[in-house]
Amino acid sequence: MPTSALTATGSDRTAALISRSLAHVDAHLDQVLDADTLADRAAMSRFHFHRMFKAHVGCTVASYVSWRRLQRACALLASGNEPVLEIALAVGYESAQALAKAMRRELDTTPTAVRQGDSAPWTSLLVPDRLPYLIHPSSGATDMQVTRITDLPDGIQALTTTARGMVDSTMIRSAQAAFQELMSAIGPSGLIQQVASMISIVPDEPQGPDDPHCRYVGGAVFGYSMYTGQGTCKQPDVALSGTLAWQTLVPGRYAVFTHMGPYTNLHQTWRAIYADWLPSSGHTLRDAPPMELCINTPYDTAPEDLHTEIWLPIQA
After folding, report:
1. Which end of the chain has fewer CB atoms at under 10 Å, N or C?
2. Is residue 135 very low, low, confident or very high in pLDDT (cuts 50, 70, 90)?
3. Which CATH superfamily groups domain 63-126?
4. 179-192, pLDDT tens digit by residue?
5. pLDDT at position 11, please?
6. E runs forming strands in the chain
7. Is 109 helix (H, G, I), strand (E, B) or coil?
8. At what angle do helices 96-107 and 61-79 cross, to 10 degrees?
9. What is the pTM of this model?
10. CA 122 to CA 79: how far, in whole Å?
11. pLDDT of 52
């Protein structure tokens, strides 16, 4: 099924495709269940599948799979006498020890305790409290409006830095580390006055709320304003060290949205875009990373006055 099927019938069609991936999880808990596999089942771009998944389900693919595996394991432990190893293998853990470790980490309990009738806290898994948006009905109505449709020209390069790590489902620490390294490189050299655009990219799917490997890319574009579409991109002479690198931004068409307010609320705008605006827009995503463009910065702006643009790559 082509990716364009996502937008053919709006929000209901998108929810149906995500539901197909969830059904695949339930039927194949003993197999590898990653974003690539589930994207195939949902007939979506692999790059954007995890964002659509999180918008509709309320958590990452990895968190959902873990939840379903633990739910199934606890139900089997409580209702039967199969060996713990057999149950562990049936729900996708490589050993009884791996299942026990996951239960201790996520539920603060053990297979033995569940088997002996310890109903708390594992019974909370019967209702997905941690998945607040689980395939919600949608009327297709939304207050999210696109600010503009624009084309990013070829050859726009950004001086980027990369930090890794997600804590409590946020990348605040990584963002601070990436931009601190970036500003340390361009501030003392006097290049800050030539910066016309400040961007950020999160190119990876988070593997849970505390993924230590998820990348955050901060970047500075010299000479060309992505906000106004004016200027000429420049590449000043900068000594590359640490994670500093020049990265060419993916050209082409973007739907641009406006977020006003703290960065901590950005996830709400992202969710509205993917869960509401996109399915009813008639647009199809390109397999390229979305970006955030900082119109102002927290260095000299109050949180409630922060102005951020979200650039979503779409087919021309």
Report:
1. C
2. very low
3. Homeodomain-like (1.10.10.60)
4. 999 999 998 888 99
5. 56
6. 148-152, 157-164, 195-201, 215-225, 230-234, 245-248, 252-260, 291-294, 307-313
7. coil
8. 110
9. 0.67
10. 13
11. 81
SS3 66: helix
Question: CA-CA distance, 37 to 62, in Å (whole number)?
Answer: 12
What pLDDT, in 10s, does the model give residues 233-259? 999 999 999 999 999 999 999 999 999
- Considering only residues 250 and 106, tell me which one the structure prediction assigns the higher pLDDT: 250
Look up residue 275 and give its DSSP letter.
I
Selection from 189, 148, 276, 121 nearest residue 268 by Cα = 276
The neighbouring-strand residues paired with 159 are: 220, 246
Which of 269, 277, 316 shows the shortest CA–CA distance to 14? 277
What average pLDDT does the segment 136-164 reach? 80
- What is the token pair recorded at 35? 């974003």
- Asked whether the beta carbons of 187 and 181 are under 8 A apart, the reply is no
306 CB-near residues (< 8 Å, 6+ apart): 260, 261, 262, 263, 294, 296, 297, 298
Would you identify the CATH topology of the domain 148-313? Answer: Multidrug-efflux Transporter 1 Regulator Bmrr; Chain A (3.20.80)
- Residue matched to tokens 């199969």: 82
- Which residues of the chain does CATH 1.10.10.60 include? 63-126
List where CATH 3.20.80.10 sits in the chain.
148-313
For residue 59, the 8-state DSSP code is S
Radius of gyration (Cα) for the chain, nearest Å? Answer: 22
Cα angle for residues 41, 20, 71 (degrees, 5° grid):
110
Q: What are phi and psi of 131, to 5 degrees?
A: -120, 75
| pLDDT over 70 (residue 33) | yes
C-alpha 80/C-alpha 38 separation (Å) is: 30
